[in-house]
């Protein structure tokens, strides 16, 4: 619950009289309140750790690329928002490209993404990426079968070149169940403040669920490599998934490949 200030939560938690009053008057449930406090504290600690890592990235001129992919309504935007919330905005960029222009359609597919790669000391986060051609484009027939197959062949080679050149590449895929997706899409439709999130393609996410699944499975199988694995995170529980995302980012950046993953995270390599 981002609307709560961590210091205010801690003050309430430390005051038994206040907690007793709130519970007696059914203003809150202690367990749910404690869960919120624990989540906000762990999130804060992870944000501090990531910020310290950003200092190191800036000082040593490292380059970091983070790719967020996932099903529609899987929570990419919210997770990215928490990741960047306390980072130095001058050294982190979020890239969410619109559909290609006619000029870009005549270029090598990766070309328009290359110009957004990080300079020394920068982190770049792609909110969807060149992997549109791996899933979204073939699902809706925005590319030919030959274009899709060529992309699937070139993507691992392209990423190997990035990594060999020193870029730290991290690929996160947020998954949700079909039932959870339906609920979130319905919530977006009913909430005026969230309705802008619904695109034309989102409206077909449910009816094309199985087609999406086939391409996603192929995505993991073909483009998940030892050098550049996919971390698939079950995002039905947003809070747990966000914490898991932070832990993955931190561990990969520091090179801690042996860190145990959460039970709801799958590594595809």
Automatic annotation (TrEMBL):
InterPro entries: P-loop_NTPase, Polyphosphate_phosphotransfera, PPK2-related, PPK2_PA0141
Keywords: Kinase, Transferase
Biological process (GO), any one: phosphorus metabolic process
Pfam (any one): PPK2
GO molecular function terms listed in the Swiss-Prot or TrEMBL record: polyphosphate kinase activity
EC number: 2.7.4.-
Ranges of residues in domain Polyphosphate kinase-2-related: 38-258
NCBIfam families: PPK2_P_aer (TIGR03707)
Protein task: Uses inorganic polyphosphate (polyP) as a donor to convert GDP to GTP or ADP to ATP.
Family: Belongs to the polyphosphate kinase 2 (PPK2) family. Class I subfamily.
Subunit-level organization: Homotetramer.
Protein name: ADP/GDP-polyphosphate phosphotransferase
Species whose genome carries this gene: Sphingobacterium athyrii
């Amino acid at each position: 619950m981002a609307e709560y200030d961590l210091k205010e939560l801690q003050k309430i938690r430390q005051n038994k009289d206040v907690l007793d009053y709130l519970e007696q008057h059914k203003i809150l449930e202690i367990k749910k309140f404690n869960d919120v406090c624990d989540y906000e504290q762990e999130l804060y600690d992870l944000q501090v750790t990531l910020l310290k890592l950003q200092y190191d990235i800036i000082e040593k001129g490292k380059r970091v690329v983070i790719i967020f992919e996932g099903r529609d309504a899987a929570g990419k935007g919210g997770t990215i928002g928490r990741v960047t919330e306390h980072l130095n905005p001058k050294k982190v960029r979020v890239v969410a490209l619109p559909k290609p222009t006619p000029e870009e359609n005549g270029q090598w597919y990766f070309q328009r993404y290359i110009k957004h790669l990080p300079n020394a000391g920068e982190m770049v986060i792609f909110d969807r990426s060149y992997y549109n051609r791996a899933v979204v484009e073939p699902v809706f027939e925005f590319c030919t079968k030959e274009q899709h197959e060529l992309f699937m062949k070139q993507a691992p080679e392209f990423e190997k070149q990035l990594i060999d050149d020193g870029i730290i590449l991290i690929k996160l895929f947020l998954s949700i169940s079909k039932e959870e997706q339906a609920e979130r899409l319905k919530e977006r439709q009913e909430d005026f403040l969230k309705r802008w999130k619904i695109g034309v393609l989102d409206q077909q996410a449910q009816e094309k669920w199985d087609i999406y699944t086939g391409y996603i499975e192929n995505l993991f199988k073909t483009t998940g490599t030892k050098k550049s694995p996919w971390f698939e995170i079950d995002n039905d529980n947003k809070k747990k998934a966000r914490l898991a995302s932070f832990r993955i980012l931190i561990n990969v950046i520091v090179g801690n490949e042996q860190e145990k993953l959460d039970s709801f995270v799958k590594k595809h390599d």
